[in-house]
Write a structure and sequence with these properties.
heterodimer, A: alpha/beta, Rossmann fold, 20 helices, 36% helix, globular, disordered N terminus, B: alpha/beta, 8-stranded mixed beta sheet, 3-stranded antiparallel beta sheet, 12 strands, 29% helix
Amino acid sequence: MTSTATASQSVTNTALTKATIRFAGDSGDGIQLTGTQFTQNSALAGHDLSTLPDFPAEIRAPAGTLPGVSAFQIQFSSEEVFTPGDTPDVLVAMNAAALRKNLPELRADGILIVNENGFGKRDIEKAGYETHPFEDGSLDDYILYKIPLTDLTEKALTDSPLGTSEKRRCKNFYALGVLFWLFDRNPKSTEDWIRAKFGRKADIMDANLIALKAGHIYGDVSGIFQNRYMIPKADLPPGLYRNITGNTALALGFVTAAQKAGVTLFQGSYPITPASDILHALSALRNYGVLTFQAEDEIAAMCATIGAAFTGALAITSTSGPGVALKAEAIGLALMTELPAVIVNVQRGGPSTGLPTKTEQSDLLQAMYGRNGDSPLPVLAIRSPGDAFHAAYEASRIAMKYMIPVMLLSDGYVANGAEPWLVPDVDKLEPIEVEFRTDPKGFKPYLRDPATAARPWAIPGTPNLEHRLGGLEKEHLTGNVSYDPTNHDKMTRLRASKVSRIRNDIPPTEVDGAQKGKLLVLTWGSTYGSTWEAVRHARADGHTVGHCHLRWLNPFPADLGDVLNRFETVLIPEINMGQLCKMIRAEYLVDAIGFNLVRGLPFKVSEIRAEIDKYL
Amino acid sequence: MAADPNAGNTAPKLTKKDFSSDQDVRWCPGCGDYAILAAVQRMMPDLGLPKEKIVFVSGIGCSSRFPYYMNTYGFHSIHGRAPAFATGIKLVNPELSVWLVTGDGDALSIGGNHLLHILRRNPNVNILLFNNRIYGLTKGQFSPTSEVGKNTKSSPWGNIDQPIKPTALALGANATFVARTIDRDPKHMAKILMEAYQHKGTSFIEILQNCNIFNDGAFFDVTEKDVKADNQLLLTEGAPLIFGKEKNKGIRMTPAGLPEVVTIGENGISESDIIVHDPTHRNRTYSNMLADFDVPDFPVPVGVLHRVSNPVYEDTMISQVTQAKEEKGTGDLQNLVTGKETWVVE
């Protein structure tokens, strides 16, 4: 927090450009809700922001234990930000376990707000502390505020008819009220939300409203805070904004693509972390004519998706890495039958069940090669929550234009992270033109468009175009089953050429910063944000560094080889063991260097910055 | 949903030939599949539907080559997954008449899960399960319907897996139409196919089919002329469960509530003691009893075992869409993308 302070009475108002807050507590404490409400409020206050939820895979791990700790981090700023912040300036810890797990992240001299009532003897034991952190000096480096949040909440709700445990459950809103005061926020957005959410349960609604207000007043009158922090509005491009998560943006992108193309949107999915929210979002949209099918398994989800594509829908499936593994055979069939579909992989830590709620970029090679046979597919990736809308739209457009299944890579960080998003005018989006074949004259199921090599989309119900598709090799043009060796070679090459032709739809590669010279940092997916900030910092320090971010991983942009050759060193930070690096080295014979950390967490800006410095 | 391009079609009635594709049929000579293909092609014109409204979907296996031989829309999918394809097709265009062709390995082994779920969801799809109690396309391994002790290439010491009864499995999955027919009885097959088509919801037909190469005669004790009358129980709605060369054997219930084979005219038993066939009981006790019948203790029932009415999957989906539009209004795209909480940056 870079600050300039002005004193007024007992509380000093401090102006900041940005701040990072981490809320942490038991997974039953409503931490994600608290974080989301603070985020919404920050967005409405005009800040640029980025968030990172960090929750355990277990729905309810034993209360008070380390595995049960849930956290939510937000960076908000008057300047452009692309990451949830490296090190929190403020940590709110609702119990001892939350403190123990998250304290190492807190900046030295950072503000530490703890719920004093979450630090009883049992809480300390369950957190695995050998000495009480309030007494052993381990918190001396921080500005510590011990607030009995549970007691204060209960006291504020003396008149509420709710039971004791229900009253205590409101403590997250009390804490939120304190934070709203500390950052000079109007709590109205959260009050409105509480009214809308609990309108039918008047007692709970009232209790939460009272707790929020009491927390806000506490900040003001308790006298424990000497500082209050003000962050001006961010200077964002003008327009209408909303706050959006990656999963929501994806869902909206697909609905938009289907409507712009004039086709039905069909989603076949099986619930899986961290992709399920896409299914939740789309299944609510029946009044938009969206058809969602919660299948019996990942395989059925993919197969129903292909059936829907055959019948003329924009057909999509959303899953994570283990789901893609199960779908692999069916994805091959979609490729063979040359039907349009989008397969969304919201990547999580792997292999196997891995780290379901943590982020990773380790399914790139699975997307590229995870099928039997020579089976290249288009692969593109999402770089930020708001970008997910445009990526979903682009993936859908390419799928239908080239009659091909498209792999769209997201990850847990982008999917659950949120950022302010400039709402697009849907009328101004690039049109998606879909024409179902109806003319029987000269119709052949595998007769190709000369430019895209797409075969016609001839859907059941169309007279005189009856034909059969299947996974056996197709004869060129007729689509009949063929075991002819020359035909198989030809068809294998034709299928591959469809992917390479997509280059014609990829705009020239942009490099941010230096256009040539010492170092290029090459990224894909969600490492965009931290790399963008790290490169910007390096340039501010006078270094010549370029940053190139890839939306398309297959095919690579036509000019990528030229871009890479303009730099002495190509550095590729990835949350995997070097998958893009391997592809770049193989494709361009460039001696690219990987920077790889697989902790289930996004990169910190400082980590990438330190790595950049090694090559300058 | 695709618009009906052929509404008000008054074209002359199609023939069997119209439903034959230009592809050579490649089953082994003498395979029971030929008889089923012929029966299906013969009954298709009776549906009164234009060809383009019909889709055949299959999985993998000998039977699953079926769509290639039908001059309709067709999808030869992957092993065991045809039910999921059929469901996707039906949801997007409920007007299509969807036929699913599968085998005992495809439907009951690798595709067991999908079969269970299409049956409980009840989309209007007709499932033809060719049961030959063997893996044919992979050249002779035991299947989920092979009998215990059977010697096959993969069970030279005898099959140790207990077989599944397809009709019992279908009833367990809440199927709304369960029937059995035989490759060697094309007339009966045609009748059952038409009843399946007319049923609203998923129709499940087990077709006893002979694989003359790897499992010749698997059902001969049910299908051959000399034993047929004694070992087949032809189900006719409203008629008593009577069978036998002399038409004097029947099924009645013992006081303990179990079925037994009795002879009419012996021990004071008359036709009025015999159970009258009614496949429409919602309670599945009766149909489960029929599904459990097998030689040598009981004759094998042939015909419709179970037929009840339940909501059809795609109809329910359409009504949700209609209801959502009525309640919330047809969704406006810009409103959706904009969302509820916004702010303006000047």
